[in-house]
Amino acid sequence: MSIPCCLGAVLVLLFGSTTGTSGAKALPGVPGKAYLYEAVHALLIVKDKATQEESGIKWNGFGRLVEKLDPSRSTALPILLGRGSGTYPINITGSESANGDETQTNSGKPDPCSGPWDEGSGPGGFTLEVTKAGAGKLKTTWHIPTGFASPKCGRLYDQFAGGTELSTTVGGEVGDRHLTLTIAEKKTETSKSGTTQQTITANGKVVLDLK
Q1: Phi-psi region for residue 147, left (φ > 0), alpha (ψ -120 to 50) or beta?
Q2: DSSP for 190-207?
Q3: Which of 20, 129, 155, 174 is deepest in the core (most CB within 10 A)?
Q4: What is the pTM for the complete model shown?
Q5: What is the pLDDT of residues 121-174, one digit of tens each?
Q6: Which helix (H) or strand (E) holds 11?
């Protein structure tokens, strides 16, 4: 169960006077007790690797996207997690950087768009969700961006339509003083024609401290 935006705002107001304490609250509409956390570390590295061969044109691309918590840019509100059976979003704001390399040939001749690329850094962020997965376990679902490995050649290759989800289970209980949420997964898709193959690899870690 996702928390409506209006309810989230009300919860922040209700908790405003408890910032700095570790006490739990029972709130209407939130299964079980609710706790406020803050992100003290967040890093997500996504690698997008793909190949395509069609009508005499061969292309392969690689992109590396790094999203991380940046206190100087972060304006995130405290993170509300419930001990019940609901699903709770975690929004990380900060900075991102991207770089990679792509090569395209047409009938064996290199295209001028080929070569390394670096888009530098700027504002960024990512989202994941937490759900109770049994005693002492939490399921984390990470929203992973895709399709960033071809900023120069502009190939229409993305088999994930701009994003995908990857999930894993970690140890921990909502209410613990520290929660460490990690992901180390990959996913491969091939087009129906067999001309395009794409693999997304995600490695991430978010550390939450109880407020």
Answers
A1: left
A2: E-TTSSEEEEEEEEEEEE
A3: 174
A4: 0.83
A5: 999 999 999 999 999 999 999 999 999 999 999 999 999 999 999 999 999 999
A6: helix 5-15
